[in-house]
Amino acid sequence: MNRKVVKRDFTRFLDITEKEARYLLKRAVLLKKMKKSGSKYKPLKDKTLAMIFEKASTRTRVSFEVGMRELGGNSIFLTAQESQIGRGEPVKDTARVLSRYTDVIVLRTYSQRTIEEFAQWSTVPIINGLSDLYHPCQILSDLLTITEFKGGIKDINIAYIGDGNNIANSWIEAAILLKLNLVVATPPGYKPEWTLVERAKKNNNFHFTHDPQNAIQGADVVNTDVWVSMGQEKESRKRKKAFASYTVNEKLLQRAKQDVIIMHCLPAHRGEEITEEVFERFQQVIFSQAENRLHAQKALLEWIITRNS
């Protein structure tokens, strides 16, 4: 008698275990090497990925489409307006229908509740391609990038400076899961999800501050992100004023280690969260980080589809 496999989703970083996260990183390293060597590997032949995006995307869409094709599968892309969700169909109905057509679904949306409702009703795995609350796929690729440039993630001091947004929240979840040395610095009033901060504080390796200079002290890795995310355009002037002292510039970097690397999930607003000079000095890291979306997501797709098949 076959054992029934419990469906797994990736709606947030804490959906997976520490062992699974480390496996995915190792697998991503291997898949990247295989691609660079020209090896063909098609474990997802005849499998189909559906993507529903309410938010615009460059890296998320292209990396998932290319990744699925390189693994032998197919992909279908829909905006909310091109699906019945845009006309008011209940999420649970769309989830149940697409589950009968496809093998995995990626959602890129505003509300985390939409992703969680999709996961509740879908019989195939759901992957969070971004929500206002979390961006777990980005952090998976960021950890791969740190592994490449720093030889691993153990004993690496990571700083995140900027808005307490979905990137910050997912970094905190990764720190909880993997016991990372992480410092998060945001302006007052722009804190990350506070329940996560309180949970992470139970580990001595996590710290939260409003002081970017304190956060970057002795850092091996510095992360930043845009100050104004999609849907926050009306707050632009207010946010730029609040974040004025959080720009990652050469002066701030003097407090970090000499061999520090700078990471940015893109798109970058030069002159705001990062200066042109710093961005271009670390462009090799930043664009490797963008490339690693492909390899990390291939590892995720392979794992989440084959284990649920």
Description:
By secondary structure, the protein is of the alpha/beta class. It has two domains: 13-135 and 293-306, Rossmann fold (3-Layer(aba) Sandwich), CATH 3.40.50.1370; 138-289, Rossmann fold (3-Layer(aba) Sandwich), CATH 3.40.50.1370. 43% of the residues lie in helices and 14% in strands. The chain has twelve helices and nine strands. The strands form two sheets. Strands 7-6-5-8-9 form a five-stranded parallel sheet. It has a four-stranded parallel sheet with strand order 2-1-3-4, sandwiched between helices. Strand 5 (157-161), helix 6 and strand 6 form a beta-alpha-beta unit. The radius of gyration is 19 Å and the shape is globular. The mean pLDDT is 95.
CATH class of the largest domain: Alpha Beta
Output the structural class.
alpha/beta
Largest sheet properties: 5 strands, parallel
Q: Which percent bin holds the helix content?
A: 40-55%
What are the secondary-structure elements, in order, as H or E?
HEHEHEHEHEHEHEHEHHEHH
- Classified in CATH, the superfamily of the largest domain is Aspartate/ornithine carbamoyltransferase
Count of alpha and pi helical runs: 12
